[in-house]
Amino acid sequence: MSTNRSYGDLAVARGGLDPADVFIVRNGPDSKTFKAAPPKLALKHNKPFLVGYVGTRASGGLGTSFWMSRCTLKTAGVTTSTSPASAGDRDSPAFRKWSMTKHLEDTVNFTGRIPDEQLLDILSTADVCVNPDKPCE
Fold first, then answer.
1. How far apart are CA 19 and CA 22, in angstroms?
2. What is the mean pLDDT of residues 87-108?
3. Predicted pLDDT at 125
4. Using CA atoms, how far apart are residues 38 and 31, in angstroms rounded to an integer?
């Protein structure tokens, strides 16, 4: 089972599975109601880029994703910071502490659980969204 076609394709290409044995089981929002909204530049907090993430901050790679987003922009010559928006069902004291040790406290917006409309605004405004899941076989 896979959550989307691209992961299903990996199961066939890398895992050697027969395509007939790969099933896509969607776990996302209803595509009939979950639609892109016009960007809301105020969500960028006067910064040029917004990095979006949806989920819980318990994911081990989330901080690294934000840190790498910032480093990538600096490498590309962008000296102002990103404004990552984080949405999830709980705040993580460990992630807040980590963000301070990396001097990211001015760039991470801890939203907590938010309504779909607000989430759509963030995702529709984000310049890039991150998925910090660690690779697996």
1. 5
2. 68
3. 92
4. 17
